[in-house]
Amino acid sequence: MRTYTLTRGRTTPRHLLGLETVLEHGPGRPGPGQAEECERILALCRERRRSVTELAGRLCRPVTAVKILVSDLLDADALVVPVTAPYAATDTDADARPSPQLLAALSAGLKRKWPDAMAHPQAG
Amino acid sequence: MPWPTPRPDDPATVLRTEPRPHTVAPTVLKVVIAGGFGAGKTTAVGAVSEITPLSTEEYLTEASTGVDSLAGVEAKRTTTVAFDFGRLTLPDAPVPLELFLFGTPGQDRFVDLWYDLSRSAVGAVVLLDTRRLESSFTPVSFFEDIGLPFVVAINEFDGAHRYHPEQVRTALKLPARIPVVACDARNPNHVAGVLLTLVDHAVKTTPTINLQDA
């Protein structure tokens, strides 16, 4: 089975990565004997930051396999998880939803990008 | 927000002289677009995404799909599910934002993926083809159950009978507070309008910090 070979038999990523976790290239170099896919991941992340899902989509590999390879690259410092502004009011809450401030920023950003777009008025 | 687990500093990296760029990445927000087969999810994602929607695969194992009628009948079984991914940057927003769009099919077997996608999401759009109303039942109940803000968007296909949003609301037994809107999934302005409707709805349903409960 090709995916199994790709991850060298591993089925669980070492790092806790979400589908939306964003990666950027780091200063480290991966060790020898890495899968060819690791080079592709690094090349993609050198161009711009990419999410785990995007990497999986571009490599045409299952998300879990890509998470395993990304974990290797994080360990080698070849990839890093960039610092982002705080996502929600409470980071500790697993179900934390975006703060009202972020939602307002999203609304403003969408309106600037599509000035002709209209929110449908809703009661309530 | 998931983070890689901390690890001790690698001594090999300490000697590095090249300064590490200290950049702050845009904040990522997620929206889930769910709908039945052929409801226009990929089209809707593609209408506003800056990249051609990517089809991404993930494995779901029996162990992670929870209670299943097959449990105990078959040994651990792995199924593959595919979902769409698109993204757009909003550099002109008051804070730099990147919006991720996840398009996911509406069948029961995707529920495990929906949990993953819904975590910390802004909300969900249930995209509807009025010729196949029943395919939206599962996602509607799911998002209601987990309390994720969602809107129902009727994709008005050429030649399909136009139902009034209120007729759809009645058919789906949706409460008045859930927005039901019509759109053309090919039209970026329409899709952006649906997203704005969702954001407005999410603002209304975001619980403010309740000090009384503390």
UniProtKB/TrEMBL annotation, chain B:
Pfam families: ATP_bind_1 (PF03029). Signal peptide: none annotated. SUPFAM superfamilies: P-loop containing nucleoside triphosphate hydrolases (SSF52540). Residues 1-20 are annotated as: Disordered. It comes from the Bacteria. InterPro entries: Gliding_Motility_GTPase, Gpn, P-loop_NTPase. Keywords: GTP-binding, Hydrolase, Nucleotide-binding. GO terms for molecular function: GTP binding; hydrolase activity. PANTHER family: ATP/GTP-BINDING PROTEIN-RELATED, GLIDING MOTILITY PROTEIN MGLA. Belongs to the GPN-loop GTPase family. This is ATP/GTP-binding protein. It comes from Streptomyces montanisoli.
